[in-house]
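Recap from last week: sequence in, structure out.
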Amino acid sequence: MTGQIFDGLAVANDIKKQVKKAVSELKNQGIQPGLATILVGDDVSSAAYIKNKQKAAEEVGINTWDHKLPATLSQQELMNLVNLLNNDDKIHGILVQLPLPPNIDEFAIIKRINPAKDVDGLTPFNAGLLLNGRAYLKPCTPSGIIEILDYYNISLMGMDAIIVNRSNLVGKPLSMLLLERNATVTICHSKTKALKDKLMQADIIITAIGNRETFTLTSEMVKSGSVVIDVGISRHKGKIIGDVEFEEVREKVSWITPVPGGVGPMTVSMLLKNTLTAASIRRESDNF
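Predicted structure tokens:
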């Protein structure tokens, strides 16, 4: 068996086309969607992510405001900026690039974002909506994974799903989205016992570690015919790689995502979709 490849770039481009058309329709109604990004510090990877997100937003007609701030920024100064953006009617989406410097409380900053502008879907309010199956702004990477599975008609009903990640960005919200599709979900992490045995029982594995030294998914850890989604990103010998030994695992599974070109483009496209959603909801509330 040679697994088929999920083409995340193709799916992301399809979503971007839909968003671009909807943005144009909003503009005709006098609404110009706007996205503000905040980058604190000079982390190279974070700067690259922000640049890609802004470029993608501009391609679909979303206005962007870029806030690059020094690592020495105080928490109160960042709070003040978030407050300004919350009250700016030109801004429909606020994205704070994570991680923040250690002197800043990430939860306090995320909590300060207006939930209606929370295009990362991370505020306590939106997390609560997700828990209750009512979220309209969902975390970008988890919702991007669901979009890929839907695009390729992969049914999750009754599947045994394992997520190797327990973060607020990926593992926890993804578990909620998989449960909504009637999968049976297990979250694994660094303290999980008999991880290999558990993985061998899974119909679908989503891994998001991003460090090959601590975790690598190999062919002996997956069962034949399973589905593998690789969210991990790391660099090795100048190349971008994921958590999965791609070529050997592909020979055993039914579907697999590549890195790059899998989940990464989906994360960006879902950010655009969330910004469009936020602008549309604002328009509806303004017209109420």
